């Protein structure tokens, strides 16, 4: 039998290249912050006021320090450094870590040397990895015929540390950065981008009080808002599918910022889809129109929560959704329903033609704004079909405007001035109306 | 979109008249067996004539009626023409009004669009089928022509100044460009020709309804099905080629098992049945009376045809629709 087998084991180099390929550096860093947040949430679900994460980034490396509780040596030995989550791994309730890949992938992505130091209760230890050495590392085992063979050694070594940190937490250090990462870390634009990603993706944790500093700057949450008034309420529905609680709120947001328009999907409070305007959230699918600037005020929020992270439609990069998951397929029709209701109102606004812009501005300026925490806690009496009550619109006026078209033409200015004087009108607009009416009368088209 | 303000009295289009009467005949039986009329709401496009509203209010005892009005008639004109106080006129296009309506009560909905097939009609279907309860009736009528000239979004893709080009049926590629994934993956090259366009529209409507009902099952757990009852085409003399599609939304407890309607030849018995054509022959009042008197008497029929009073084709068509046929008279008052 042994002669018939073909070795299919991956090489470590291939493995690292594959897992690090499809994640951006920003997402890799946020993946590390997710671990900090998961740790802090285990200590206090309600408030993260007493926790901090400090990130320091420069061309020499990355340093992340937190006081979020750290992880135990047992966890490090059994799960944290394993590639992939073992089936029997204990669940971290309401976390976003699911696949057991995030931290390793982030570290391998960035540098050739990394250190993970953690202190939890009385345990304080450190894992030092030199990536090149680790890739070469082999061990000897006996095959089924009793022969000694050398195979890749995938283990990591740790050292216990005798000194004590002032608070339980984790310190991650990456050095000898990969060339592309070093260039990126030296770029100021990257810091702005990273800051923007963190403040959006982790907005809930910041709202809950977590202090995240990037190179000494305290980051403030940056999340989309929803407009609400006494007369106008968003679409709302909630329920449970397959152990996942869902809540959908869809309505209007401020005008003028097309990038903010679309769907926002949160899994256990982590933003995984931001301002989505693609087929993934139903745009342009099965009779729902593709996203269009007329829908600039559309804002939809989906909150998916589950104690068991594996039930959530997360992808390994936590960016985007596993759209084929049963949970998402069951939630999407509700999203579509909300979308039809809100976009039908937005189409009506377009019917106001030249007055549409002012109307959108009026709603933006006069309505109250709900922040992300208020949206999440929103729980009106009316749920489902009739929950969306749009602002009032004069549909009669819209019907009249819809039956009008704009006729435009360019003519010589001097000739137009002569015609204006002759027609005794004061503006080019009136001249246009006069000349059009003149044509209709002369051609006897009045009754056509 | 809705009944055009510029067309003549809508009530006297003979094919539409016949169709309306066919609906009435079949709906009377369905409502009698399934629910009382009073529990239903009727949603339609009343225009200024409210013809279907008058008929269904009187004959089906429906008191809750909503007319969607997308045209720019003045409010006073609409109110003046409103025949019954129970009719609630909602201004806006169907896709603007339907999402605001309470569709959770049993409904008879007839979306009698004036124009050709459009994407928003499928959105209307989604709005309706995602919410209406079992026992509801859905009917959609539209112009069945799938020609390039009707779809401005394709103007840049061919020589749209030439009428011969504009009158060409859509190619499958063009149909997909307009309707995307609403179009079945496998489709005949001549799917939009006048011989097949109604079938193509039917397939697209079938597909959309199935899809929404599946989604509804997934998200709400409602087990519902749709039974096709109306699959009808007609063309008014000199008018547009129309197609009507409609049926009954049912579940295990509210269905048509105990309703006998198969004696109506315009009712589709099986989803694959061929389309039913309404063809109202042009007959004088005297000719119609003659046929009424002697129809189904083979000898008499033969004589009428031989004498060339009425053609055989007109006789056959008249036999199909005479029970629902209008008789117009000039009344001076």
Please give a structural write-up.
The complex is a heterodimer of chains A (448) and B (333). By secondary structure, chain A is α+β, with helices and mostly antiparallel strands. Chain A contains 14 helices and 17 strands. Chain A is elongated and about 105 Å long. Chain B is an alpha/beta fold. Chain B folds into 2 domains: 10-145 and 194-278, Vaccinia Virus protein VP39 (Rossmann fold, 3-Layer(aba) Sandwich); 285-324, no CATH class. Chain B contains 11 helices and 8 strands. Chain B has helices at residues 14-34, 51-60, 75-81, 94-97, 119-129, 163-166, 172-179, 197-220, 285-294, 298-306, 312-321, and strands at 41-44, 64-69, 87-91, 107-116, 137-143, 225-235, 241-250, 276-278. In chain B, strands 3-2-1-4-5-7-6-8 form an 8-stranded mixed beta sheet, sandwiched between helices. Residues 1-8 of chain B have low confidence and may be disordered. The chains are: A alpha+beta (448), B alpha/beta (333). The interface between A and B is medium-sized, with 32 and 38 residues.
Short description:
Chain A has 448 residues and is an alpha+beta fold.
The tally of beta strands of chain A, per DSSP, is: 17
Any idea what the CATH superfamily of the largest domain in chain B is called? Vaccinia Virus protein VP39
Name of the top-level CATH class of the largest domain in chain B = Alpha Beta
Task: Describe the global form of chain B.
Answer: globular
β-strand number of chain B = 8
Would you state the CATH class of the largest domain in chain A? Alpha Beta
Low-confidence stretches of chain A: none
CATH topology of the largest domain in chain A: Heat Shock Protein 90
Structural class of chain A: alpha+beta
User: How many separate helices of chain B?
Assistant: 11
End-to-end Cα distance of chain A: 90 Å
Question: What's the number of structural domains of chain A?
Answer: 3
Give the termini separation of chain B: 34 Å
> Which strand order spans the largest sheet of chain B, edge to edge or round the barrel?
3-2-1-4-5-7-6-8
How large a portion of the residues of chain B is in β-strands, by DSSP E?
15-25%
* Total count of helical runs of at least 4 residues of chain A: 14
Count of discrete structural domains of chain B: 2
**Kindly state the mean pLDDT of chain B as a whole number?**
91
CATH architectural name of the largest domain in chain A = 2-Layer Sandwich
């Amino acid at each position: 039998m042994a002669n018939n087998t073909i070795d299919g084991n991956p090489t470590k180099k291939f493995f690292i290249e594959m897992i690090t390929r499809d994640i951006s550096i920003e997402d890799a860093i946020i993946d590390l912050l997710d671990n900090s947040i998961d740790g802090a949430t285990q200590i206090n679900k309600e408030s993260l006021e007493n926790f901090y994460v400090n990130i320091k980034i420069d061309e020499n490396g990355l340093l992340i320090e937190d006081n979020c509780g750290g992880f135990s040596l047992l966890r490090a030995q059994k799960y944290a450094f394993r590639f992939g989550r073992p089936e029997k791994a204990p669940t971290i309730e309401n976390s976003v870590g699911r696949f057991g890949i995030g931290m390793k992938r982030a570290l391998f992505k960035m540098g050739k040397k990394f250190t993970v130091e953690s202190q939890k209760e009385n345990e304080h230890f450190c894992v030092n990895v030199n990536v090149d050495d680790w890739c070469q590392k082999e061990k000897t085992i006996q095959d089924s015929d009793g022969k000694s063979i050398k195979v890749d050694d995938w283990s990591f070594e740790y050292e216990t540390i005798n000194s004590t940190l002032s608070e339980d937490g984790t310190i991650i250090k990456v050095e000898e950065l990969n060339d592309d990462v070093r260039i990126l870390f030296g770029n100021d634009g990257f810091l702005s981008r990273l800051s923007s990603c963190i403040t959006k993706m982790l907005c809930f944790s910041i709202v809950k009080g977590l202090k995240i500093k990037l190179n000494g700057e305290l980051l403030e949450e940056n999340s989309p808002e929803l407009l609400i008034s006494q007369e106008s309420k968003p679409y709302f529905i909630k329920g449970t599918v397959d152990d996942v609680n869902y809540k959908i709120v869809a309505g209007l947001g401020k005008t003028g910022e097309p990038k903010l328009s679309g769907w926002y999907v949160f899994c256990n409070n982590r933003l995984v889809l931001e301002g989505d305007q693609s087929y993934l959230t139903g745009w342009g699918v099965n009779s729902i129109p593709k996203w269009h600037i007329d829908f600039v005020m559309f804002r939809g929020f989906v909150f998916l929560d589950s104690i068991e992270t594996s039930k959530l439609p997360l992808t390994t990069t936590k960016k985007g959704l596993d759209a084929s998951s049963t949970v998402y397929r069951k939630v999407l029709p509700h999203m579509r329903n909300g979308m039809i209701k809100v976009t039908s109102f937005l189409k009506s606004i377009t019917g106001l033609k030249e007055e549409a812009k002012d109307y959108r501005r009026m709603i933006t300026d006069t309505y109250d704004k709900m922040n992300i925490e208020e949206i999440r806690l929103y729980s009106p009496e009316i749920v489902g079909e009739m929950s969306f009550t749009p602002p009032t619109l004069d549909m009669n006026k819209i019907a009249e405007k819809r039956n009008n078209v704009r006729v435009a033409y360019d003519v010589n200015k001097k000739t137009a001035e002569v015609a204006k004087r002759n027609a005794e009108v004061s503006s080019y607009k009136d001249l246009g109306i006069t000349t059009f009416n003149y044509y209709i009368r002369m051609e006897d088209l009045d009754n056509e | 979109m809705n009944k055009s303000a510029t067309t003549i009295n809508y009530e006297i289009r003979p094919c539409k008249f016949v169709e309306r009467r066919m609906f009435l005949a079949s709906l009377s039986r369905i409502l009698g067996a399934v629910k009382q009329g009073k529990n239903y709401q009727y949603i339609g496009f009343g225009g200024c004539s409210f013809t279907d509203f008058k008929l269904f209010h009187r004959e089906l005892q429906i008191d809750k009626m909503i007319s969607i009005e997308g045209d720019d008639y003045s409010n006073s004109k609409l109110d003046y023409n409103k025949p019954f106080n129970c009719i609630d006129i909602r201004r806006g296009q169907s896709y603007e009004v339907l999402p605001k309506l309470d569709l959770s009560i049993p409904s008879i909905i007839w979306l009698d669009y004036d124009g050709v097939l459009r994407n928003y009609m499928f959105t209307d279907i989604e709005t309706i089928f995602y919410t209406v309860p079992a026992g509801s009736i859905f009917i959609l009528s539209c112009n069945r022509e799938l020609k390039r000239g009707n779809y401005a979004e394709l103007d840049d893709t061919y020589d749209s100044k030439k009428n011969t080009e504009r009158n060409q049926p859509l190619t499958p590629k063009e149909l997909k460009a307009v309707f995307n994934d609403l179009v079945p993956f496998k489709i005949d090259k001549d799917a939009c020709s006048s011989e097949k366009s109604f079938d193509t529209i039917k397939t697209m409507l079938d597909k959309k309804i199935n899809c929404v009902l599946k989604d509804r099952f997934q998200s709400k757990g409602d087990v519902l099905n749709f039974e096709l009852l109306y699959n009808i085409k007609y063309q008014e003399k000199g008018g547009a080629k129309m197609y009507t599609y409609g049926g009954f939304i049912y579940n295990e407890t509210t269905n048509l098992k105990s309703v006998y309607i198969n004696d109506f030849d315009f009712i589709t018995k099986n989803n694959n049945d061929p389309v039913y054509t309404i063809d109202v022959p042009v007959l004088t009042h005297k000719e119609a009376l003659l046929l009424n008197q002697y129809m189904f008497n083979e000898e008499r029929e033969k004589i009428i045809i031989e004498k060339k009073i009425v053609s055989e084709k007109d006789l056959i068509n008249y036999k199909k629709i005479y029970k629902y046929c209008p008789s117009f008279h000039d009344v001076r008052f």
